[in-house]
Amino acid sequence: MNQATPAFRIDQEGYAAGLPVCTAVLGEGTVTLKNAAGETVRSIAVNAPETDPASGDAVTLVDLGVLESGEYELERGIDRRRLSVKPRAWNAVTHALIKGLYFQRCGCGLSPEHAGVYAHPPCHTAPAAEWEDRSVRRRVTGGWHDAGDYGKYTGPGAVTVAHLLYAWKLFPRGCGEDLNIPETGNGVPDILNEARFELEWILQMQRSNGAFHNKLTKSHFAPFIMPQDDLEPEYLMPVCWCATADAAACLALAYRVYRPFDEAFANRMLLAAKRAWDWLQAHPDYVPFMNPEGVRTGLYGGRSDASNRFWAACELYAATGGPAYRQAAEQLYTPKIPLLEFGWMEVGGLGTLCCLFDLKENAGDVLYTRLKEDFLRRCEKALTLSKASGYGTALEPDRYVWGSILPVMGNAMAMIMASLLTGRQDMRDAALLQWHYALGMNALDLCFVTGFGERRVMHPHHRPSGADGIEAPVPGLISGGPNKLFCMPQTKERLSPDTPPAKHYLDETPSADTNEIAIYWNSPAVFVGAYFNTPA
Ligand SMILES: [Zn+2]
Asked: Among 30, 317, 448, 452, who pairs with 326 as Cys (CB 3.0-4.6 Å)?
């Protein structure tokens, strides 16, 4: 990894022409911005920087304004850092984040044509047994490996697909290019081709009674081996309330998206969504998912299924217009629903997307007018967080937990939505700071997307990247980022206890708590990237 430069933290993928260019400057003194001809374009005095509570850095955000396309250099004393401004600066990284999901495909091989050096033979193709009755065996294939491990989880998968589908619905020109995947050229946008790979798997996770299995995993995580070498049996784990609601929501949303492309597929999804909803109606009392004895894979449990049911009711209403779904959504919408949460534990933000951007006024007073007011009020909190941070990062210092990239990207999604609803530029600009955070304008001076940035993640907690013998990790995967809480022993041993939260990070393979990847961290970044990548 290149040495961190002392003075400047920048978006390492560059900046977009037409949007404000913001950098983080450590310490004080006059900063000069020069163009490629060596002429001074800006000269900004930085005095008395405040200490950023999350990182401990004395840092100032410097807004350089809108700049013409070109190469620039920041200077202060002997410190120099190049930055570039160009049209579609984030096109490659946005599409790589979508393609990153292709590299997570399970139940098939990845061919050299589409995966290059990361090709591998088919994995996880054997029939799975139901955990509760091993005599019941079913072939359930496809889907994405969830994260650094090889498990597949219904709820997180449904949330991931929803992020992609809303990215495409709202910002089709920001995420619509070919990805060089097996389906490319079939007349369907590749982001939808990739999402369908997961949807076909989700459909297989439904039981005959309408409920969804929580997950398809082994009893424990595999060692760091390639997926095709992971041959221990997989099990369909018990059903789960949250997973059933998330699947219902996602499939109802997907029905609307895919209907113009493949009506039979769309109808199959709507039927599955309705049956899942009926099961939830017949089982109103929430039962939290617990790992059965002897199972140690991801839990993905929740405290309640209220926001999951809310999202499902919204999507089923949008899909069918059925008044019972609207009534259910209105009843489920309470102040307790976290509207700025986009998964996997709470999904109120996804229900909000459905109501405010798809149903709109048709949703009525409760699900449009009141929800919009409530949502916009809560977005002020995200904006306040961004303003309180030296790097503009919309995250409380104590929320740097496992997968801290998710709330950062979630707040960016919320502020983009707020900006679209109100036309407010301050919301858009604060959302942009979160995107810069992901791409390097952070206390670590690190671009969190593998394969991108001058200072890049090289050792994500990701089994294929650790086992394939290739130095560079699989590209297009976003790291979970700093985590001060729930640390694994190795991280505790390697980092001093007084390391600030925003720097509590190790780019080392065993450091799952700071450097794992996950499909549902990639996907909110796709939403944010697609928005900022949309041509003016
Ligand atoms: Zn697999």
From this structure: 317
461 has catalytic annotation: yes
How far apart are the C-alpha atoms of 506 and 493, rounded to whole Å?
Answer: 11
Ligand 1 geometric centre to CA of 464 (Å)? 10
Q: What residue segments make up the domains of the chain, in order of their start?
A: 1-89, 91-443+516-532
Distance 126 CA to ligand 1 centre (A): 10
Active-site residue flag, 507: yes
Active-site residue among 114, 145, 436, 461?
Answer: 461
Each residue's pLDDT tens digit, 124-180: 999 999 999 999 999 999 999 999 999 999 999 999 999 999 999 999 999 999 999
User: Hunting for tokens 């049209």 — which residue is that?
Assistant: 87
Cβ–Cβ under 8 Å, residues 244 and 153? no
Cα(411) to ligand 1 centroid in Å equals 32
DSSP 335-364: TTS-TT--SSS--HHHHHHIIIIIIGGGGH
Q: In whole angstroms, what separates CA 288 from the centre of its chain? A: 24
Reported as type and span, the H/E element at residue 60 is strand 58-66
DSSP-derived pairing of the beta strands 20-26 and 8-9: antiparallel
8 A C-beta contact, residue 161 and residue 254: yes
Judged on CB neighbours under 10 Å (0-12, 13-18, 19+), 338 is middle
- Domain at 1-89, CATH class: mainly beta
Q: Is 246 considered catalytic here?
A: no
Spatial contact of 495 and 380, defined as CB atoms under 8 Å apart: no
How is domain 91-443+516-532 classified at the CATH fold level?
A: Glycosyltransferase (1.50.10)
- What is the DSSP code (8-state) at residue 237? P
Is residue 516 among the annotated active site residues?
yes
Straight-line distance from the first to the last Cα atom of the chain, in angstroms, rounded to the nearest whole number: 35
pLDDT in tens, 447-493: 999 999 999 999 999 999 999 999 999 999 999 999 998 788 889 89
Burial of 183 (0-12, 13-18, 19+ CB in 10 A): middle
Q: Exactly one of 149, 194, 230, 358 is catalytic; which is it?
A: 149
